[in-house]
Design brief:
Largest sheet: 5 strands, antiparallel
Order of helices and strands: EHHEHHEEEEHE
Shape: rod-shaped
Number of strands: 7
Structural class: alpha+beta
Strand content: 5-15%
Number of helices: 5
Number of domains: 2
Distance between the termini: 104 Å
Mean pLDDT: 88
């Protein structure tokens, strides 16, 4: 406390001022005010929102929103002089938000490497299925000719389906990204049995569902064209 006369500091428990000798009446001295910390009366809505968005840190836009709201809420809480709570929620949102901002680019890099590999694997799988399907169609033609020696090979898929040697799902809709066709079927001479045919398989979407086109005929040899052209496969395709 201070001496009321000279305003000099008075040691604790002393009843006389050391500088001016004035008697100090401690009973009459005003008591020091007791400061009571303010109790938060509400929670920052921005802090709550930051924490909620932070839980979705794996989505980059929401992670950025969590960081933005986290900083806003911390500033708001600081300026409220203790009447606004939610600091813990704001910090949680900030931590999760920054975690998302840091890891999402890493995930995008991994995806950029993995997705092309997956697409290549899909193309390869579709092409393998197309080759097997062409061989299956050759077997269906051979079976049909054995069942119908008077006709020879079938000149349309419906005949093979009715004979029970071909599954309709293979040829009536695109099958694993490929479309199949049966063409150039007929006899070697008029009035004779059908002795030749051509089976072609082309990708439904070039470089998306497949790259190469495949073809075969009564010889059973499967050929391919790298440009995905069924016509080029029949004319000058390379043998598998």
């Amino acid at each position: 406390m201070q001496c009321p006369r000279c305003k000099s500091p008075v040691p604790e428990k002393s009843t006389t001022c050391l500088f001016c000798g004035n008697a100090i009446d401690r009973a009459a001295a005003p008591a020091s005010p007791v400061l009571t910390p303010a109790v938060p009366s509400a929670t920052s809505s921005k802090a709550i929102a930051s924490m909620v968005f932070g839980f979705f840190f794996f989505l980059l836009p929401l992670a950025i929103v969590a960081v933005f709201l986290g900083h806003l809420s911390l500033s708001q809480i600081k300026k409220s002089a203790g009447t606004l709570g939610g600091r813990g929620m704001a910090l949680t949102g900030l931590v999760l938000g920054y975690l998302g901002v840091a890891f999402i680019p890493l995930i995008l890099i991994v995806a950029a490497i993995a997705i092309p590999n997956l697409l290549r694997a899909r193309l390869s799988a579709n092409e393998t299925t197309a080759v097997n399907s062409v061989r299956y169609l050759n077997q269906a033609e051979t079976s049909y000719a054995a069942l119908h020696p008077e006709a020879g090979f079938a000149c349309d898929f419906d005949s093979l389906i009715r004979a029970g040697v071909l599954d309709a799902s293979l040829v009536r809709t695109p099958h694993h990204g490929y479309v199949f066709g049966l063409q150039a079927c007929g006899p070697a001479a008029a009035g004779k049995t059908n002795t030749h045919y051509q089976i072609v398989a082309r990708p439904l979407q070039q470089n998306t569902t497949g790259v190469r086109a495949f073809c075969s005929d009564q010889s059973g040899v499967v050929r391919f064209d790298r440009q995905g052209s069924a016509e080029a496969c029949v004319e000058k395709g390379q043998q598998l």
